C-alpha cells in the first residue's frame, strides 16, 4: 500500500500497473520509432485538474426534487391543480430533506450514506437539456447530439489524451444499456474506432459473471501461450524483414504483445477477490439491494486506479412514471451506499483529487403528473453532481423555481457540462476537434461554456 | 457560397455557424456577419469535380518499355516527374493471391497456385489475363464486389436506431446487388433501377427490389411527429444517395446553404420534394410497428402476388387488431393499478378520500388483465399459423397515392419553420446536367434517376471509378472517396481519373471491364517492396511506385479461414437467417435473442456477405475487424490494429475450432508435405528457410507435451493470426 502510494505520487497519480504499462511502451518506442499507438499519451491543451472521469449514468431520469433539490413550496401546494386540467396536480416530495455536513447541502432521506459525503459534492441544480424524450436525451448526454450519431464523450477524451495505461483499454463502459441505441453511448462514430469504449457487462447482468471476450485461454498454459506467440512474432518479423519497413506490420507485432499483456492485466483489475470485507461493505456489497451496483462502482474504482481514463457506469430503471413511492426508494437504496463508498474510497486513497466523479441522468422529473404516484419527464430543470478532480467541494450551483420545474439560475446545458468536463481534463472543448466529412467536429458542437463558478 | 444575400435571415446565419468547420463562429462574431455576406458569389463554381469529364491523350514517358497500357503511361508520367522509380513486378505467387482476394475475396488453392506458376513461366501476360478473366466470370466475383456497394447502401436487415425492427425481406436487395455485379449490369442502369426501378415500364420484380436502396435506411420509429419523421427519412435518403453516387455531402443543406460546396438550401429541398412525393414501403415486418401516416406495407412480388397477398393481409390485419386490443387493455389496467397505488399511499398519509372503492377497481383491473392475456394467446396462435402460401415481398419505393408536392424550405432544418416551397427537381448545382421538367402529377423520381446516371453528370462516373480504384489499390486517386467537394482531397492523378471515367462510359458503364483494365496494368502488378529513395520522396505511395500492403477485410478474412479449414459453403444460401427464423414469429429485436442470434451466426458457414446484419447487434467479430457501420453510407472502411483483435485471433473459440479443422486436414497429408502445404494454403508461398526451421523446432517441442493434433491446431492458429495470412502483399 505504501509502495503504491509512493508510486502514485511520483508518477503524477498513475497506479503501479500504469507505470509498468508506461515503461513497456517507452521501451518499445525506442526499438520501433515509427509506429505510434493511437493510445499513446498526448499532451493536454492546458494543465489538467483531473486525470480520469467516472461517469455514473442514471438512465431513465432520476427525480431531482425527491433527492437533492429541496422544494418546500411544492410540499405546501401538494395536491393543487395546475393549469386547466383538473387531473394534473402538484405532488410534493414524499421524503424528508435535511441539511448535511459543514456545507449544509440539502439531501433527502432517500440517500443517507451519500448525505455523509455532502461536503464533497458539487451540486449542479440548474441542469437543462434539449429534449424530454429518453432516446434523444440519452444520446445528447453521451454524445452531445440528439439528431446524429456522434462520438461519445469517453471516445473524445481518449482521442484527446490517449490512454494512461497501455495495458488496459482507455475507455470502459460498465453495464451499458443495450436498448435505445446503447452502443452509441460508448461508440466512436467517425473518430478512429480504436477510441470506442470497451463494454463490460450490460442489461443489468450481474457484473461478477461478466468476462471480457477472449481474455483468457483455458486450453493453454501461460508458457504455452507465450511460446505460441513467440513463433507468431518470428513469422511476423520475418515478413517485416522481407518488406524491409512497414509501420502497419510494426503495429501488428506491437498489438499482439499488448493483447498478451492486457490478458494478464485486465483480469487482475476485474478480480475483486482480494478486496477486504470492509471494502465490500463500504460499497454496499453486503446488501442485496446495492450489491450489483456496488460491485460496478468498486470495479470503476479499480479501473481508475489501474489507469483507465474514462469509466462509464450505467444504472437503469429511473423512469418513475408510476410506482414512485416504492420504486424510487428501491433505486436509491441501490446506489446510495455504492456511490458514497466510491467517493469515500477514492478520497481515502488520495485519488479523489485527480478523479472526477460525475452523477446524473438524461433529465429530471416533473413536479406534477396525472397520477398521484409518479412523475413525468423534465428537461428544463434537474440536478447532476460532480465530485473530486478540480471542482469546488460542498457547493451548490444553480437552482430551479419553487416547484423544481425549471432552472432559473446558474443554468448548465449539456454542452456546458461537456465543456467543463473536458476543461478539467486539460482539454479546450473548442480545440478538441476532428475533421470528418469536410468539417471539424467537436463534442460541444458550436456551444458550450466552461462553468467557471464551480472550478476549484 | 453561390447564393447569398438579403433573403437569408439572421437565424440561418446562426445555423450556418453550426456547420462551419474552419472557424467556429462565436456569438460575438455574429455581429460582423453582414460583412461576411459579401463573400464573392460563384467562388466554388470552378471546382474540379464539377467540370465535365475530359478525354486526355496518354502522355509521353521516358521509359517507354515499362507501360503495358495507357493507364500505366499516366502513372509513369507522374513517377518520372517526381523522380520516383516503379519497383519490380510482383512474383507469380504474390500476384495470384492478390488477384484472388481483389476479385473474388477468397484465397487460391495450392493447385491453382501451381497451375498459375506453371503457366506464368510460359507466358506471364497471357497466364494473368486468363486468370483475371476466369475470376471476373466466377459467381464469387459478385459476392466480393457487391459487399462494397452494400457498405454504401448501408445495407442491413434490421432498422437499428431506437427500434431495431427486423427487415425480413431485405436480403432480396442484397441478392439483387450480387446479381448486378455478377451480370455486369451497366452501372448507369444499376443506379437508375435503385432510384426509380419501380417506374420502368413493364418492370420486373428485380427492378422493384432495387429501389430497396431508398427504403433500407434506419428510421426513428419513436418519433411522434409524423412530419418530422418524414423529413428525417428523406434526409437519410438524400445523405445516402448524394454521398454514394455523387460523392457530395448535400445533407448539410437541410439547415443552411452549404458552406463550401455550391449547394444551396433550395437544392436540398428541390431534391426532398421528389422523395417525399413517393411512398416508402419499408414494412417493417408484418407484425410490428405498423405506424405513421402513410402506407408503408411491403410490396408483394412473384407471379402469384395478387392472388396470394389478400390472405396474408387478412391474417396480418387480424393480428394487428389483436395487438391493439392487448396493448389497450394492458395499459388501461396499468393506469388503474397506478391509481390504486396512489390512493393507497394517500390513505397512508391520511389525505385519502374514503369514498374510493378500491376493491371494485382492483377487480376491474384483474378482469382486464385476464382479457388481455386471452387475446394475446389468440394472437400468438395466429402468428404461428400464417397462410400456407405466401408471396415474396419487396422493400421498395412506389409512386405515391397522394398527389406529388413540393417541399418547403425549413429554416435551420426545423420542420415547423417553413419558408418558400421549392419546385421539385429545380436543383441548380453548377456543372450538373439538365434535370428535365417535372409535371404537376409526377414526383420527378424518374428524372432524378436519369440525372444521376447521365453520361454528362461530371460526378457519377468519376466517383465510381475512384471507388473501384480504392478497392483495388487500398486508396483512391481521390482519397476522400465519399467527398468530391471542396473540402475533399484533390485527385493525385486528375488526367488518369478522367481517362478511366471516359473509358468507363464509353465501355457502356461496365464495372468488369473497368476492373479488368486496372488489374491488367503494370501499375497494379508491381510488388509491395520497400524502396528507400522512393520512400524519401513519397512515403505515402501517393504516386504509386509500389503496391500497397493491405489487410484483408473481415469478409475475406473469415471466408479464407473457412476455406482453408475446409468448412466454407460456397453455395449461396436461400434468403436469410432472419427471413427463416424471425419471419412469422413474434420477434422482438435481435438483441432480445442475442444468445441465439450469435449462436446461429457462429454456426453459419456461408460466405460472410450472407450473414444477417442487424444494425444494433452487428456480430462482434465483424466490428472488431472494421466492418462498415450499417447505419451510414461508407466508402472507405477503417483498418484498425488493436489488441482486442489479437485476443480474438489467439483465444477466440471460432479461431480454435477452424484451426483444429485445418489441422485435421493437414494431418491427412504425408509428413514431408505438411509444413509446406500449411504455408501455401494460408499464404500462397513457402516459408523462408529460417522460419521453416524454427517452425519445425517448435513443432517438435510442442509434440513433446501434447498430441500431434494439438500441436498442429496451434500452428494453424498461428498462421491464421499471422500478418502473412491476414494481409495482401
Describe this structure in words.
- With 456 residues, chain A is of the alpha/beta class.
- Chain A has 13 helices and 19 strands.
- The two termini of chain A are 28 Å apart.
- The relative contact order of chain A is 0.20.
- The model of chain A is unreliable at 1-33 (pLDDT under 50).
- Chain B is built from 31 helices and eight strands.
- In chain B, the strands form four sheets. Chain B has a two-stranded antiparallel sheet. In chain B, strands 2-3 form a two-stranded antiparallel ribbon.
- In chain B, a hairpin with a 7-residue loop joins strand 5 and strand 6 (418-422).
- In chain B, helix 8 (139-152) crosses helix 9 (171-182).
- The longest helix of chain B has 44 residues, at 305-348.
- Residues 1-43 of chain B have low confidence and may be disordered.
- At the A-B interface, helix 8, helix 9 and strand 19 of A face helix 15, helix 26, helix 29 and helix 30 of B.
What ranges of chain A have pLDDT less than 50 throughout 5 or more consecutive residues? 1-33
Strand content of chain A: 15-25%
Give me the secondary-structure category of chain A. alpha/beta
Number of helices of chain A: 13
Helical proportion of chain A, percent range: 25-40%
Structural class of chain B: mainly alpha
Q: Determine the number of helices of chain B (DSSP H or I, runs of at least 4 residues).
A: 31
Got a strand count of chain B? 8
Q: Report the end-to-end length of chain B measured between terminal Cα atoms.
A: 44 Å
Q: What does the overall shape of chain A look like? A: globular
Strand order of the largest sheet of chain B: 1-4
| Morphology call of chain B | globular
The count of DSSP E runs of length 2 or more, i.e. the number of strands of chain A, is: 19
Query: How much helicity do the residues of chain B have?
Result: 40-55%
Cα distance, first to last residue of chain A? 28 Å
User: Oligomeric form of this entry?
Assistant: heterodimer
| Main beta-sheet annotation of chain A | 9 strands, mixed
Amino acid at each position: 500500500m505504501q509502495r503504491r502510494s509512493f508510486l502514485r505520487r511520483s508518477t503524477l497519480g498513475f497506479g503501479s500497473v500504469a507505470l509498468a504499462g508506461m515503461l513497456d511502451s517507452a521501451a518499445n518506442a525506442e526499438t520501433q520509432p515509427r509506429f505510434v499507438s493511437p493510445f499513446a499519451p498526448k499532451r493536454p491543451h492546458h494543465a489538467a485538474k483531473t486525470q480520469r472521469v467516472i461517469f455514473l449514468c442514471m438512465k431513465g431520469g432520476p427525480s431531482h426534487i425527491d433527492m437533492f433539490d429541496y422544494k418546500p413550496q411544492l410540499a405546501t401546494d401538494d395536491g393543487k391543480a395546475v393549469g386547466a386540467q383538473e387531473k394534473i396536480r402538484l405532488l410534493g416530495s414524499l421524503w424528508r430533506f435535511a441539511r448535511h455536513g459543514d456545507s449544509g447541502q440539502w439531501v433527502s432521506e432517500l440517500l443517507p450514506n451519500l448525505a455523509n459525503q455532502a461536503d464533497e459534492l458539487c451540486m449542479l441544480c440548474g441542469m437543462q437539456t434539449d429534449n424530454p424524450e429518453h432516446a434523444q436525451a440519452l444520446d445528447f448526454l453521451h454524445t452531445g447530439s440528439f439528431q446524429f450519431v456522434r462520438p461519445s464523450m469517453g471516445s473524445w477524451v481518449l482521442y484527446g489524451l490517449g490512454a494512461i495505461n497501455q495495458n488496459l483499454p482507455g475507455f470502459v463502459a460498465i453495464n451499458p444499456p443495450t436498448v435505445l441505441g446503447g452502443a452509441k453511448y460508448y461508440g466512436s462514430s467517425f473518430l478512429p474506432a480504436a477510441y470506442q469504449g470497451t463494454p463490460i457487462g450490460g442489461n443489468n447482468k450481474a457484473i461478477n459473471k461478466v468476462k471480457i471476450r477472449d481474455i483468457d485461454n483455458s486450453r493453454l498454459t501461460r508458457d504455452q501461450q507465450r511460446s505460441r506467440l513467440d513463433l507468431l512474432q518470428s513469422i511476423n518479423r520475418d515478413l517485416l524483414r522481407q518488406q524491409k519497413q512497414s509501420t502497419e506490420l510494426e503495429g501488428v507485432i506491437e498489438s499482439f504483445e499488448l493483447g498478451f499483456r492486457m490478458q494478464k492485466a485486465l483480469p487482475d483489475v476485474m478480480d475483486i477477490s482480494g478486496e477486504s470485507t470492509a471494502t465490500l461493505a463500504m460499497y454496499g456489497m453486503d446488501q442485496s439491494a446495492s450489491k450489483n451496483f456496488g460491485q460496478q462502482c468498486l470495479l470503476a474504482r479499480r479501473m481508475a486506479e489501474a489507469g483507465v481514463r474514462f469509466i462509464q457506469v450505467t444504472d437503469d430503471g429511473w423512469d418513475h412514471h408510476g410506482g414512485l413511492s416504492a420504486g424510487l426508494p428501491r433505486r436509491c437504496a441501490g446506489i446510495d451506499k455504492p456511490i458514497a463508498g466510491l467517493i469515500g474510497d477514492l478520497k481515502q486513497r488520495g485519488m479523489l483529487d485527480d478523479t472526477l466523479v460525475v452523477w446524473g441522468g438524461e433529465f429530471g422529473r416533473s413536479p406534477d403528473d396525472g397520477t398521484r404516484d409518479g412523475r413525468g419527464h423534465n428537461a428544463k430543470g434537474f440536478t447532476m453532481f460532480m465530485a473530486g478532480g478540480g471542482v469546488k467541494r460542498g457547493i451548490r450551483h444553480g437552482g430551479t423555481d419553487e416547484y423544481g420545474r425549471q432552472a432559473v439560475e446558474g443554468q448548465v446545458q449539456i454542452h456546458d457540462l461537456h465543456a467543463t468536463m473536458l476543461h478539467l481534463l486539460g482539454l479546450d472543448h473548442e480545440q478538441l476537434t476532428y475533421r470528418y466529412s469536410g468539417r471539424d467536429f467537436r463534442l460541444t458542437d458550436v456551444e458550450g461554456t466552461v462553468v467557471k463558478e464551480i472550478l476549484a | 457560397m453561390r447564393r447569398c444575400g438579403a433573403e437569408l435571415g439572421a437565424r440561418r446565419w446562426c445555423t450556418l455557424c453550426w456547420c462551419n468547420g474552419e472557424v467556429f463562429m462565436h456569438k460575438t462574431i455574429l455581429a460582423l456577419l453582414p460583412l461576411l455576406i459579401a463573400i464573392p458569389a460563384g467562388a466554388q463554381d470552378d471546382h474540379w469535380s464539377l467540370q465535365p469529364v475530359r478525354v486526355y491523350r496518354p502522355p509521353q514517358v521516358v521509359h517507354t518499355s515499362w507501360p503495358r497500357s495507357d493507364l500505366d503511361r499516366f502513372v509513369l508520367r507522374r513517377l518520372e516527374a517526381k523522380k520516383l522509380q516503379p519497383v519490380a513486378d510482383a512474383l507469380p505467387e504474390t500476384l495470384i493471391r492478390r488477384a484472388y482476394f481483389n476479385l473474388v475475396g477468397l484465397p487460391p488453392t495450392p493447385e491453382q497456385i501451381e497451375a498459375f506458376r506453371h503457366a506464368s513461366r510460359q507466358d506471364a501476360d497471357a497466364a494473368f489475363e486468363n486468370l483475371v478473366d476466369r475470376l471476373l466470370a466466377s459467381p464469387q466475383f459478385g459476392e466480393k464486389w457487391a459487399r462494397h456497394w452494400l457498405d454504401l447502401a448501408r445495407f442491413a436487415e434490421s432498422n437499428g436506431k431506437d427500434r431495431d425492427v427486423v427487415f425480413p425481406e431485405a436480403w432480396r436487395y442484397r441478392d439483387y446487388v450480387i446479381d448486378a455485379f455478377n451480370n455486369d449490369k451497366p452501372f448507369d442502369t444499376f443506379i437508375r433501377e435503385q432510384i426509380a426501378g419501380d417506374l420502368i415500364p413493364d418492370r420486373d420484380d428485380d427492378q422493384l427490389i432495387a429501389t430497396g436502396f431508398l427504403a433500407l435506411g434506419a428510421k426513428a420509429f419513436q418519433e411522434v411527429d409524423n412530419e418530422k419523421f418524414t423529413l428525417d427519412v428523406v434526409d437519410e435518403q438524400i445523405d445516402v444517395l448524394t454521398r454514394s453516387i455523387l460523392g457530395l455531402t448535400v445533407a448539410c443543406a437541410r439547415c443552411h446553404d452549404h458552406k463550401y460546396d455550391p449547394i444551396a438550401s433550395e437544392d436540398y429541398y428541390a431534391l426532398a420534394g421528389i422523395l417525399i412525393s413517393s411512398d416508402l414501403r419499408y414494412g417493417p415486418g408484418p407484425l410490428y410497428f405498423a405506424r405513421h401516416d402513410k402506407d408503408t406495407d411491403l410490396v408483394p412480388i412473384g407471379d402469384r402476388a395478387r392472388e396470394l397477398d389478400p390472405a396474408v393481409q387478412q391474417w396480418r390485419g387480424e393480428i394487428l387488431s389483436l395487438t391493439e386490443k392487448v396493448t389497450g387493455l394492458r395499459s388501461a389496467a396499468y393506469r388503474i393499478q397506478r391509481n390504486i397505488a396512489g390512493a393507497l399511499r394517500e390513505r397512508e398519509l391520511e389525505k385519502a378520500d374514503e369514498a374510493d372503492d378500491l376493491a371494485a377497481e382492483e377487480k376491474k383491473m384483474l378482469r382486464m388483465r385476464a382479457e388481455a392475456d386471452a387475446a394475446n394467446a389468440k394472437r400468438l396462435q395466429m402468428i404461428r399459423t400464417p397462410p400456407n402460401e405466401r408471396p415474396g415481398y419487396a422493400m421498395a419505393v412506389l409512386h405515391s397515392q397522394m398527389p406529388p408536392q413540393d417541399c418547403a424550405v425549413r429554416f435551420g432544418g426545423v420542420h415547423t419553420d417553413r419558408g418558400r416551397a421549392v419546385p421539385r427537381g429545380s436543383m441548380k448545382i453548377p456543372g450538373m446536367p439538365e434535370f428535365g421538367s417535372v409535371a404537376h402529377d409526377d414526383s420527378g423520381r424518374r428524372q432524378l434517376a436519369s440525372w444521376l446516371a447521365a453520361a454528362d453528370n461530371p460526378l457519377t462516373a468519376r466517383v465510381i471509378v475512384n471507388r473501384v480504384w480504392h478497392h483495388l489499390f487500398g486508396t483512391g486517386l481521390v482519397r476522400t472517396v465519399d467527398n468530391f467537394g471542396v473540402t475533399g482531397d484533390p485527385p493525385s492523378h486528375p488526367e488518369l481519373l478522367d481517362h478511366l471515367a471516359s473509358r468507363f462510359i464509353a465501355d457502356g458503364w461496365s464495372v468488369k471491364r473497368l476492373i479488368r483494365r486496372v488489374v491488367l496494368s503494370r501499375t497494379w502488378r508491381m510488388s509491395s517492396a520497400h524502396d528507400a529513395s522512393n520512400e524519401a520522396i513519397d512515403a505515402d505511395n501517393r504516386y504509386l511506385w509500389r503496391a500497397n500492403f493491405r489487410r484483408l477485410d473481415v469478409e475475406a478474412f473469415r471466408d479464407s479461414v473457412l476455406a482453408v479449414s475446409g468448412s466454407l459453403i460456397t453455395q449461396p444460401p436461400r434468403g436469410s437467417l432472419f427471413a427463416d427464423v424471425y419471419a412469422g414469429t413474434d420477434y422482438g429485436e435481435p438483441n432480445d435473442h442475442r444468445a441465439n442470434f450469435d449462436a446461429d451466426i457462429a454456426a453459419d458457414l456461408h460466405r460472410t456477405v450472407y450473414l444477417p446484419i442487424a444494425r444494433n447487434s452487428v456480430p462482434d467479430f465483424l466490428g472488431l475487424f472494421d466492418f462498415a457501420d450499417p447505419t451510414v453510407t461508407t466508402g472507405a472502411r477503417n483498418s484498425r490494429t488493436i489488441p482486442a483483435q489479437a485476443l480474438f485471433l489467439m483465444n477466440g473459440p471460432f479461431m480454435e475450432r477452424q484451426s483444429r479443422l485445418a489441422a485435421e486436414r493437414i494431418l491427412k497429408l504425408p509428413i514431408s508435405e505438411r509444413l509446406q502445404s500449411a504455408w501455401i494454403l494460408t499464404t500462397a508461398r513457402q516459408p523462408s528457410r529460417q522460419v521453416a526451421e524454427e517452425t519445425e523446432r517448435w513443432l517438435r517441442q510442442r509434440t513433446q507435451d501434447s498430441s500431434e493434433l494439438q500441436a498442429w491446431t496451434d500452428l494453424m492458429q498461428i498462421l491464421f493470426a499471422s500478418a502473412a495470412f491476414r494481409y495482401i502483399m
